[in-house]
Amino acid sequence: MPVLIDDPLRMAWFECNDYGNAGHLVVLAGGLLKWVDDTSWLAFDNRRWSEREGQFRARALAHRVAQHIHEEVAALRELIGDPKVHNVRGLEERLAPGVGQSERSIG
């Protein structure tokens, strides 16, 4: 199951717990993996849903979640730079493009 996430920061704001990890898994699965009736995973192969394949893909994606979190950290480091010197402007430009300086300073 290819995982194509064009922006590693898309999920960087998920909670750092099991709930956040589940959110990562849902996004990375792209609708091709479903948890059914609290009993099993089903995977879609563009023709049919498979429980057997679902178990395999769920495990593989769980490992991918951990890898993706490392990609998020690297993207945040690239955006922010030195964590001791916060680049607030860089974050604002990346996460809130088009917001004027006066709008940023309110609050």
Structure description:
With 107 residues, the chain is mainly alpha-helical. It has one domain (8-105). It has helices spanning 18-29, 51-80, 88-95, 101-105, and strands spanning 33-36, 40-44, 49-50. The longest helix has 30 residues, at 51-80. The protein is elongated, with a radius of gyration of 18 Å.
Task: Give a quick summary of the entry.
With 107 residues, the chain is mostly helical.
SSE layout and pairings?
Blueprint: H1 18-29, E1 33-36, E2 40-44, E3 49-50, H2 51-80, H3 88-95, H4 101-105
Antiparallel strand pairs: 1-2, 2-3
Helix pairs in contact: 1-2
> Uncertain regions: pLDDT < 50 for 5+ in a row?
99-107
Largest sheet: 3 strands, antiparallel
The helix-strand sequence is HEEEHHH
Q: In what order do the strands lie side by side in the largest sheet?
A: 1-2-3
Radius of gyration (Å): 18 Å
The termini sit apart by 44 Å
Overall spatial form: elongated
Structural class determined from secondary elements:
mainly alpha
DSSP, total strands? 3
Count of discrete alpha- or pi-helical segments spanning 4 or more residues:
4
Helix content: 40-55%
Please report which band the strand proportion falls in: under 5%, 5-15%, 15-25%, 25-35%, 35-45% or over 45%: 5-15%
Integer count of domains: 1
Q: What is the typical, i.e. mean, pLDDT?
A: 77
